[in-house]
Design a protein that fits this description.
mainly alpha; globular
Chain lengths: 321, 321
Amino acid sequence: MHTTEQLQQILDTAIQNLRFPDQPRQLYDPITYIINLGGKRIRPLLVLMATELFGKDAHDAIHAAMAIEVFHNFTLVHDDIMDNAPLRRGKATVHEKWSTNTAILSGDVMMVEANKNLAKVNPIFLKDVLDTFNATAQGVCEGQQLDMEFENRDDVSIEDYINMIRLKTAVLLGGALKLGAIIAGASEKDADLIYQFGENIGIAFQLQDDILDVYADPEKFGKQVGGDIIANKKTFLLLKALSKTDSFVLQNWINRKDFENQEKIQAVTEIYNELGIPDEAEKEMKKYAAIAFENLNEISASPIYKQDLHQLAEQILKRNN
Amino acid sequence: MHTTEQLQQILDTAIQNLRFPDQPRQLYDPITYIINLGGKRIRPLLVLMATELFGKDAHDAIHAAMAIEVFHNFTLVHDDIMDNAPLRRGKATVHEKWSTNTAILSGDVMMVEANKNLAKVNPIFLKDVLDTFNATAQGVCEGQQLDMEFENRDDVSIEDYINMIRLKTAVLLGGALKLGAIIAGASEKDADLIYQFGENIGIAFQLQDDILDVYADPEKFGKQVGGDIIANKKTFLLLKALSKTDSFVLQNWINRKDFENQEKIQAVTEIYNELGIPDEAEKEMKKYAAIAFENLNEISASPIYKQDLHQLAEQILKRNN
């Protein structure tokens, strides 16, 4: 069994060795560009960790891990078009650097590249791997659709929101782990448990992200603190606040078109504080984390081998604050 | 063995039975919309015909046929965004009827749906089926990229053009036939031959399309005759004319921004006629058709069973003129 650091090394090498055709350059250059912007490579790491948890060598799952990483980057390229985002990890997004058409088509061919990597897994597991991957990919698309729709809807419940982040963020963590489990020949029960572990960690992770967006230390936070408040993003915090108060003041801040960013952030944060929203969000986050660790506990594998996954999950949930 | 009409009936039923999730509606409604715009369903028909040519029942290949049809419709949705096309088969394109974001994301999930159908084929053939499908999908993306690039390039050769239409149009016909052959357990040699048959028919088909765009009977042609001339589309005809003459008159028509459509169409058509371009294009088209029928001849299968494919290919090449 490899340490987490060793697995990250295996991943880095595999990512460096990903080869795409030379021509047409406009189609393939953006793939190399986006993949080399970096990131923590959490998703492919989860594939490898699950494979080793169930007693097989990480190298058996390297193609599936690459499929997950390329697919994830594909979603970033297309999401950035839809969200009109100028920057990704501090660099120009693909549609900004090239064009929207290039970003659409390079994204499409990344989806094909992801599937080409997937087709390289041991044929014994191929059908199961495809079914899990396709269900995951479909969930991610549905999550992005819901996220876009929520911007223009006034009837989003907290349940709707949790379901959206489950689809948009969490199923990919669950799917990555399940792929690793399938390739290691884990039982269906264990494969489902590790999927649930990933999904619940993913929901907790996104809730933590919502909290950090308001309460992070600006020095350590990668993006602007309060961005969600400025954009009226319907996060757990805003939805919870709206459900707890018919405060005219909060509604007024949401409706205002002209405002000073810092003033709005401070005012809305104070409303959150008065309503005890940070505690409630923290409680909700910990609820999903606790379910996740329970899922992990139930898996039939040595507790020692589970430690690395437990540790990684803790790290993910504690980052940047 | 089924007749072509029976196979079309099997396809119609299967397409009617395609089921997508209900929610989110904005994500899935466009799929039903685009697929039900109709079309001749040539590509999935080729899958089924190849399967029966090699002695298996069409129903064995129905999921692969659906994968090809859904994939083809996905490319239409994304191509229409990139080409800024308002209409598809006389109806609003998906990005016009909904939005560009919806068209991007619905297209993405159609790619997933295509892969879901593909994953249902007999696991014995799954790896081969995936490799063929992924190579085909990659080729189609490359073809679309080249087609877009050619608009702004002045150095496109006839060879470049043939390669572009091969990728954009022909590999999908070849890929569809090869999938059917694989699922019928055909030899690798026969699977490659039927792929070549499809690719060569596809190139001949596109060349015929270029000819029709200039010389079709306006009464019978589905779109505006002369559309390629108005848009300076670098078809075989224009590239051949440019290679045969340094005519200032032709170059002048290409560069002019203000012109009467009918006047330009008439003038450029006359230049084509003087240079003998229609005959050259017809000769080129027939060259690829002849290679295709030679490929078909070489396949190890009863000549009687090849007749239907031969007939369909003749029909495709003779349409609308």
